[in-house]
Specification:
This protein has 239 residues and is an all-alpha fold. It has 2 domains: 17-73, Arc Repressor Mutant, subunit A (Orthogonal Bundle), CATH 1.10.10.60; 85-228, Orthogonal Bundle (Tetracycline Repressor, domain 2), CATH 1.10.357. The chain contains 12 helices and no strands. It is flat and about 70 Å long.
Length: 239
């Protein structure tokens, strides 16, 4: 008759399944395999359990996506407001960009859940508040927020898949050199304007390009704000 297995030979009991564990596993799948792989079945495999067991904690994939987004949105740390709207808007943009760059597919997740969950509401409320306190009308505040969000998410997406998506500086440099070489091989006169700026086309960092675009965008906001508060010309509106 065989003796019972020693305590060290017994499989360690698994942690009980919980909503937090499901969300953590979903984030692990997102990081490793991307947004397209994020399904209830795939998360269940990550947890070494059946998909049906997840439904005791998560209603469906939509709720799972919202919970993942809430968890990731909580990681966005925005500095305290300074009271200077240009600096505060720039700080928000940088914080959101940083969060998007830390997770390559977060932009896709955010876009997919736009308007459906509550994850983005605190940052949205903070941004709109900055614009309103600066003197923007309600409509201009909303439009400015849209322009800012489109710029930040678009820039982050391009950085994630472009040259800056390479983590190692040596690989970034190699890809830039390859692109420059292909450009130089084109027949003369094919793209003369690109040849003229070839020295700058692949120069600089993602941070430099982002800051340039952000400054131009905020300058545009400031110009529109000043124009909205210009006094009406004499006789304007007279019968």
């Amino acid at each position: 008759m065989s003796s019972p297995p020693a305590a060290d030979d017994r499989a360690a009991p698994r942690d009980p399944l919980s909503r937090d564990r499901v969300v953590a596993a979903a984030i692990a799948v997102l990081d490793a395999e991307g947004f397209g792989a994020l399904s209830m079945r795939r998360v269940a495999r990550e947890l070494d359990t059946g998909a049906m067991s997840l439904y005791r904690h998560i209603a469906d994939r939509d709720e799972l996506l919202d919970l993942v987004l809430e968890e990731l949105a909580a990681e966005v740390v925005i500095p305290e407001a300074t009271g200077y709207w240009r600096e505060d808007i720039a700080a928000i943009a940088r914080a959101v960009r940083g969060a998007l760059l830390r997770r390559r597919d977060l932009t896709l997740l955010l876009t997919a859940r736009l308007g459906r969950g509550r994850a983005a509401l605190p940052v949205l409320d903070r941004t709109i508040g900055v614009f309103l306190r600066a003197g923007f009308s309600a409509r201009d505040a909303v439009h400015a927020n849209h322009a800012l969000g489109n710029y930040v998410s678009g820039a982050a997406m391009w950085e994630a898949v472009g040259l800056d998506g390479e983590v190692e500086p040596s690989r970034r440099a190699a890809r830039a050199a390859e692109s420059a070489a292909r450009l130089a091989e084109l027949p003369a006169g094919t793209v003369p304007n690109l040849v003229a700026v070839a020295g700058e086309l692949f120069a600089g960092s993602g941070d430099e390009r982002f800051e340039y675009g952000l400054a131009v965008l905020i300058d545009g906001f400031a110009a529109r704000l000043a124009k909205a508060h210009e006094p009406a010309p004499p006789g304007h509106g007279a019968a």
